[in-house]
Automatic annotation (TrEMBL):
Biological-process GO terms, alphabetical: transmembrane transport
Signal sequence annotation: none
Membrane topology qualifier: Multi-pass membrane protein
Organism: Nocardioides zhouii
GO CC terms in record: plasma membrane
Key words of the record: Cell membrane, Membrane, Transmembrane, Transmembrane helix, Transport
Name listed for the protein in its UniProt record: ABC transporter permease
Entry-linked PROSITE patterns: ABC_TM1
Length: 299
């Protein structure tokens, strides 16, 4: 009997890995050309935006009303706006907020969704059904309208935007995690953990979540792209980041008033930064998914 319990304990300690070794995953990721390109582009954007204090050619918000709006030149690679501010500098500093909001929304939403989905999937029964019905309620609520109302009432600081966006963005990952946990909880290593008296928390944290690591990482990358788009949309509509803070979304909104003028080209640059960033993040997400789950069984 003691030998049997020893075997069970050993099985409970070592859950089967759902992804290949780190080296093999990295090899598959590097071979994914679009993912490799996306990674380089994303790293360049992150370094440029968060290193803008040292990289940008001018100080943020520095005005030169004497020159006003000008086209691209050697001194101002992307030109200047109506206040004579260097547009490249403004874009880089605005990127800090857009990228940070996108990343933290994705992380917080993924953590919340993973916790909700894991509990609903593992516990099951009436509690699991109740949790998923609440999740369904969040799914049917018109997200952009709720966001606009919430930000109108709570204010539109970057922190508020992150919390509100994360608060309605967790439902997808919750449903996916629940379906995976429903399958994993019947596996032999989970049964073994129960036999040796492991608590629910230990089983979730020690045995189930490591097998969902690939799913979680991929969701964070793809959710980042979605959050950047949503924040940009809200800021463009006037509900997101407000001046004097700048994001790519409200720069796009400000430049929209230049349609029909000689400075209409300023409208293109924020949109281009958003497009390139979202594409790069999506390419990285696709590469991670293919590297972590090459047969497409889990992700």
């Amino acid at each position: 009997m003691s030998a049997d319990m020893g075997t069970v304990a050993q099985m409970a300690e070592v859950a089967p890995a759902q992804v290949s070794g780190t080296r093999e995953v990295l090899r598959r990721f590097v071979r994914h050309r679009l993912a490799a390109i996306g990674t380089v582009v994303l790293l360049l954007l992150v370094v440029a935006c968060f290193g803008a204090s040292w990289i940008a050619p001018y100080e943020k918000g520095a005005q030169d009303l004497l020159i006003g709006p000008t086209g691209p030149s050697a001194q101002h690679p992307l030109g200047t706006d109506e206040l004579g501010r260097d547009y490249l500098t403004e874009l880089l500093f605005a990127g800090r907020i857009s990228l940070a909001i996108g990343f933290f929304v994705a992380v917080f939403a993924t953590v919340l969704g993973t916790a909700v989905g894991a509990i609903a999937g593992y516990r099951g029964g009436a509690l699991g059904e109740l949790i998923m019905r609440v999740t369904d309620l969040f799914l049917i609520v018109p997200g952009v309208a709720i966001l606009a109302l919430a930000l109108e009432g709570l204010g539109s600081s970057p922190t508020t935007i992150v919390l509100v966006l994360a608060g309605i963005s967790w439902t997808y990952i919750a449903r996916v995690v629940r379906s995976q946990v429903l399958s994993l909880r019947e596996k032999e290593f989970v049964e073994a953990a129960r036999v040796v008296g492991a608590s629910t928390t230990r089983i979730l944290v020690r045995h189930l979540l490591p097998n969902l690591a690939g799913l979680i990482v991929v969701n964070i990358s793809l959710a980042t792209a979605t959050a950047i788009i949503v924040e940009s949309t809200l800021s463009f509509l006037g509900f997101g980041v407000q001046p004097p803070r700048t994001s790519w979304g409200n720069m796009l909104s400000q430049a929209a008033g230049l349609v029909g003028t000689e400075q209409v080209y300023l409208l293109y640059f924020p949109g281009l930064f958003i497009l390139v960033t979202v594409l790069a993040v999506n390419f990285v997400g696709d590469g991670l998914r293919d590297a972590l789950d090459p047969q497409g069984k889990q992700l």
